[in-house]
Amino acid sequence: MKSKGSRFERDLIAELWKNGFAAVRVAGSGVSAFPCPDIVAGDGKKFFAFEVKMRSSLPLYVSSEEIEKLKRFSGAFGAVCLVALKLPRKKWRFFAIEDMKATPRGFCIDEEVYAMGKDMLELKGLAQLRL
User: Fold this and answer.
1) How far apart are CA 91 and CA 71, in angstroms?
2) Cα 68 versus chain centre, distance
3) Is the model's pTM score more than 0.85?
């Protein structure tokens, strides 16, 4: 399963590079004593930290712990934190934490939230904004 996740992370990195972002996988994400995202990307003006997920279907549940680590890293680094989700035969979609549904143990992306996710073009637009 870990190799499959790595393959999807490499796929997202390739998409980010094609769209004008420098992007790298973070060594130790998920196992480090420090909060680490899966991928860090930027275009020189704006920086993003991604928790990368792939699923065969919705809903996707993300634990409070994963989200808290992503938020801690992003705050310290000065990055926008996003969950990147890949579904079969669909393009990457990006979700801000505040757009996800809160659950008792974390956050959820269901069909309703998925429909509001940003695509790569919208991500490029976010990079243009000085938030």
Assistant:
1) 24
2) 13
3) yes
14-59, pLDDT tens digit by residue? 999 999 999 999 976 667 778 999 999 999 999 999 999 999 999 9
Single-letter amino acid code for the residue at 107: F
Cα 18 to Cα 21, 65, 80, 87, 93, distances in angstroms: 7, 31, 20, 20, 16
Distance CA 73, CA 80 (A): 10
What token pair was written down for 17? 């590079």
Residue with tokens 């420090």: 34
User: Which is it for strands 101-103 and 106-109: parallel, antiparallel or unpaired?
Assistant: antiparallel
d(CA 3, CA 12): 14
What residues are annotated to the active site? Answer: 29
